[in-house]
Amino acid sequence: MDLFEESGEERVREGAPLAARMRPTSLDEVVGQDHLLGDGSPLRRLLQTVSGPAKVASIILFGPPGSGKTTLAQLVAHASGRRFVELSAVAAGVKDVREAIERAKYELGSTGVETVLFVDEVHRFNKAQQDALLPAVENRLVTLVAATTENPAFSIISPLLSRSLLLTLRPLDEKAIRDLVERARVDSRGLNSAITISESSLETLVRLSGGDARRSLTYLEAAAGAALARGDSMIDEETLALAVDRMIVNYDRNGDQHYDVASALIKSIRGSDADAALHYLARMLEAGEDPRFIARRLMISASEDIGLADQNALAIAVAAAQACAMIGMPEARIILGHATIYLATAPKSNAAYLAIDGAISDLKAGRGGPIPAALRDTNGAVRWEESPGREAYRYPHDYPDGVIAAQYAPDDLRDREYYKPTRHGAEARIADALTRIRVILKGERSGS
Q: In CATH, what class is 174-244?
């Protein structure tokens, strides 16, 4: 079987999937990715330029599934009359890469037609396979358009990355998905107005798509088929649930359900019930909640509800947020589950949360006088000479214990203790250390 194929209209036949039939044939039909399609952008220049000094280099499209990488690659080829060759990195080897390049070289020499070589999931190519692309890319025998869902900094070899423009695609927003679904519903290439869809079902479908254009059209096609099979032309919630073979979670991301489930997740973590927390996490994920929103809530919980009782909690939550941003769904569910379990089972303390709120409360109440002179910046020595009877600033590192008797707070807050550690987890050790530190700090003022 030929591992690479040339694109043509014959591929989009009547029986092709809805997502294939509705693939944009011009820039005007592309939804989303406005940041890549503005006037003068590298992608628009690539779509318009055939040759000459303004010719644009090969590109690497980095983005989540269903964000339009294949569509943009095909538009690059078709907009300027280039030949389009698609190579599957899942099945291709070095031999296939070299054959594609040799064929492109032959076409350029015999017909003058340039070739756009589209390599989907290029991150699946090993180093040898990526190395095989380098000469053709460097000599511009082909215009490489490579697509990847993995961070190119980790998945693409440096020489190939340096010879290409890296363009980042974003998940489609809800408006873009709605526009796409509505176009597919009425377009003659799509469902040709054969079905209607209730507003609540459309909202659910958009949510379930998770910013993936292909998934949204796949769900629409399945739901339309289910409705027509039942002799109905309306897609309702029941039909949609039947078609996508999953429960439609009652969850409005802009309403009470959004905040209720998020609140239940955080309160379950605070209550150390990992199982309940996982339920609410699953509920949010199945409803299509943005994993970045969940990750932000976990980071807040790590400081608010755990704090210094487990100093790894915040690091775990931040790492989870970064990992989710790098890999996206559905794999991000694993990272979020990992972080949720860690936070739920960690020792709890809200002492840090209460401490900063206490300090802010005093400030709002007008407490907090002048900064002690010894702590002020720059010309403190001069000012101390003008304040007889007071000591200059002493450097704690010059003393054996690293802590000395001194006043750091303003006079009206000198005895205020905002941070009151618990005896939970690592905070027990901190509590003991803080007790000793506070005794030393107050020693001189108490006359000892």
A: mainly alpha
Rounded CA-CA distance 416/432 in Å is 18
**DSSP label of 193:** T
Residues belonging to the chain: 448
SS3 142: strand
Provide CATH 1.10.8.60 ranges for the chain.
174-244
Protein fold of 361-443: post-AAA+ oligomerization domain-like (1.10.3710)
Tokens matching residue 350: 């809200």
The per-residue pLDDT for range 6-24, each reduced to its tens digit, is: 444 444 556 788 988 998 8
H or E element, residue 234: strand 234-235
Q: Are 156 and 123 in contact (CB under 8 A)?
A: yes
How large is the C-alpha radius of gyration of the chain? 31
Work out the pLDDT band at 305, boundaries 50, 70, 90.
very high
Residue 413 or 341, more confident: 341
Q: What is the pLDDT of residue 335?
A: 95
Per the CB < 8 A criterion, the answer to whether 219 and 208 are in contact is yes
Is 429's pLDDT higher than 80? yes
Rounded Cα distance, 89 and 91, in Å:
6
Task: Supply the CATH classification number for the domain 256-345.
Answer: 1.20.272.10
Q: What is the 3-state secondary structure (H, E, C) of 48-116?
A: HCCCCCCCCCEEEEECCCCCCHHHHHHHHHHHCCCEEEEEECCCCCHHHHHHHHHHHHHHHHHHCCCEE
**Which tens digit of pLDDT belongs to each residue from 380-407?**
444 444 455 456 788 888 888 888 888 8
